[in-house]
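Per-record layout

source: Recurvomyces mirabilis
name: Zn(2)-C6 fungal-type domain-containing protein
length: 425
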Amino acid sequence: MQAWVTETPGGGDEQSKSLYNETGARRRRAHPKSRNGCQHCKQRRVKCDEVRPACGQCIERKWKCEYPPPEKRAHLSPPPRNDSSESLAIPKTEPETPPTSISDSGSPAAESRNAIHTGVIAYLERTSVPRRKLEPDGPQVRLAVELVDHFLDTTELWVGSSVSQTIIQRHAFPMAFHASYLLHAVLGCAASHLQFLHPGEKKYETAALHHYTRSLQAYSSQLVHDIEHGDGQAMMAASGLLAKLTFINTVAMNADEPLSPRTSPVCWIRSMQGVKVILSTPNLKTQLQTGFLLPILQRYKTPPPMDINMRVDVQDPDSPTSMLARLRDFCAISSLGAADPYTPIITRLAPYILAVPDHDSVDEMMAIVAGVETSFIELLEQCDTRALLILCYWCARLPFIQQWWTGPSARIECRLELGLAKLPA
């Protein structure tokens, strides 16, 4: 039997006696005191690493980390210098509160930018295996700072419409410090874009794959195992970034594969279905309906029905109207109310066949795939010719948006779909 099981107050050897005070009550284990810890650690009376904007305890438990206001701590003496492995390897230049605001110019204020850098580096230190301090001017720190700055400072439209990009750049990092899947998605997008701009730089390729994988793992875990306690805003933001990363990564992996049902687009389409789960979870939907992502959420609404009496224009058989009419005829759709698996997605796709999609259409274009019905996905799994052709129309319209991730992957996917449609059943 283990010694600690048989301990009795006042009995046993000197080591056992030291566990109890003179009254026979068990002594409380001593631990270093933290006067500047966050509110959660103070309430739980546990050691706080005092890292800002979010301490390790709160990040591990997915809590919102809050520190006492400066005025409540003004009378306290400065804490002693901590040279343990828990401390950051770079000077703490961040403000007393997490970064939550961005200046009118669209760039974070200098102090907030420093806080974001410090928070990202602190997170990478805590999650490194084996855990270690990063050199202040080492390659990992320089790359992390570069990814943060690239994500915040890129002004060209590259992660969505003008509306969604402005919102994501403004709010992503304050949310990301409480949601690791969003932090990795942000860094993964920045690394992937830099890889596109500098294809010879191996560091961007490695970082892109690392952060994409970590984001997808954490996001899937939240979605499957703890959806009710998720942050609707952070999950929706992550889903939008992951949709783009999944599209370019999955399609690229299948580019050199021989045509077969295994290379069907079902994998990356299924990965985007998390949006439907988020919007069907009551507390997450409530968060979104009152939050700053509402303008993006509204883009997921089904467009109004189009004219069902369209016919091929014999004078211009290649016109958008003729294209849509031929697609409807091929899928044998007699009316928009018909109970078939093709009508819903063609209804949502029709406006972007009739008009050339642009930057402001990218969110709606991605929403078409994110909201596709299960019955349609099952047809894609079976390499149904009609379903593959509809998706090919979607892929053919996507490059018109002319963002870095839309063209190459869409053209590869379109080739695969056309090839699969010709395979024998």
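summary: Residues 1-26, 71-108 have pLDDT under 50 and may be disordered. Residues 181 and 215 are 4 Å apart (CA to CA).
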